[in-house]
Amino acid sequence: EYYDVFEDFHGVLMYKPFTKYWDEVETFTASLDDLVIASYPKSGTTWASEIVDMIYKEGDVEKCKQDAIYNRIPYLECREENIFHGVKQLKEMKSPRIVKTHLPAQLLPESFWEKNCKIIYVCRNAKDVAVSYYYFFLMITAYPHPGSFPEFVEKFMQGQVPYGSWYDHVNSYWEKRKNSQMLFMFYEDMKEDIRKEVIKVIQFLGRKPSEELIDKIIKHTSFKEMKNNPCTNYTTVPDEMMDQRVTPFMRKGITGDWKNHFTVAMNEKFDMHYMQQMKTSTMKFRTEI
Ligand code: A3P
Question: Which positions fall inside the Sulfotransferase domain (predicted)?
């Protein structure tokens, strides 16, 4: 059943209905002033997106509350069967556009690299991502049941989850950082000092970080606000697609929840595998906070 829904696509496991219209994605034409928000799923994409949208809308909360986040910042993807017609929405959007994607760097349309568009890569430690992804799986009705949590973690380690290996994904962008305009945002840093991270984003976007703007952003994008805001909490997606009665999209919003899910044995195995996978990487994550 699992591989009825997902398929290997150039070495990356993908949700089948998405790859069906791959041409639309691959041939997407970037504009010089497009901003890309890239991430592996469950890394804080929605949080970072709302921060960026607040900056683009100069702190106007009302403007951010006019539509759901997935319409204000669509995913660069194309499917026929549901409300996510990202490519179409993006083509109709006025500049400067914000383009959201979970594609690994090697699958991001060439046009973005050619035009050297700014990219914000949002990332989070692997263990918390695995936990968050597990609950997400339970909620997405089109996804097969992920099995028990230990079973899911096996799949995660083998890259047998949508968007493939977390290890490959984070490294795919990290390796490109020197030749492009990229900002890396770590979920753990955002939890620790959101002010500092918000200032970084504002500066990366070439704008002036006024105290007023920073304060507004921090208030509007707190976990509590975003959990209660229908424009950020995905409650406007029908239950038939995303069943939040199982678990809410805005679930816990903390670091270290993996400690409530990994047994000592699972953790040891994960660490061993992690060291192998990240052996040649200079990317450092904070898992113990
Ligand atoms: P948890 O499942 O651990 O709670 P993404 O947007 O990439 O799908 O990531 C979703 C994760 O980010 C969820 O993690 C969600 O709760 C968390 N998140 C979303 N908004 C947040 C915020 N404002 N502050 C902290 N965490 C947030």
Answer: 33-281
Mind listing the pLDDT tens digit for each residue in 137-191?
Answer: 999 999 999 999 999 999 999 999 999 999 999 999 999 999 899 999 999 999 9
Mode of pairing for the β-strands spanning 12-15 and 6-9: antiparallel
Beta-bridged to residue 37, according to DSSP, are 100, 120
Q: How many CB atoms lie within 10 A of CB 81?
A: 9
Is 261 catalytic? The answer is no
pLDDT digits (tens, 9 = 90+) for 223-281: 999 999 999 999 999 999 999 999 999 999 999 999 999 999 999 999 999 999 999 99
Tell me the three-class secondary structure of 51-105, residue by residue: HHHHHHCCCCHHHHCCCCHHHHCCECCCCCCCCCCHHHHHHHCCCCCEEEECCCH
pTM of the full predicted structure? Answer: 0.97
- In ligand 1, the atom with minimum distance to the C-alpha of 225 is 23
Q: Is 248 a pocket residue for ligand 1 (Cβ < 6 Å)?
A: no
Q: With beta carbons less than 8 A apart as the criterion, state whether 173 and 167 touch.
A: no
ipTM: 0.99
CA of 27 to the centre of ligand 1 (A): 31
Burial class (CB in 10 A: 0-12, 13-18, 19+), 284: exposed
- Helix (H/G/I), strand (E/B), else coil: 266: helix
Q: Which of 72, 48, 86, 65 is nearest to 230 (CA)?
A: 65
**What is the full DSSP assignment across 115-153?**
TT-EEEEEE--HHHHHHHHHHHHHHBTTSPP--SHHHHH
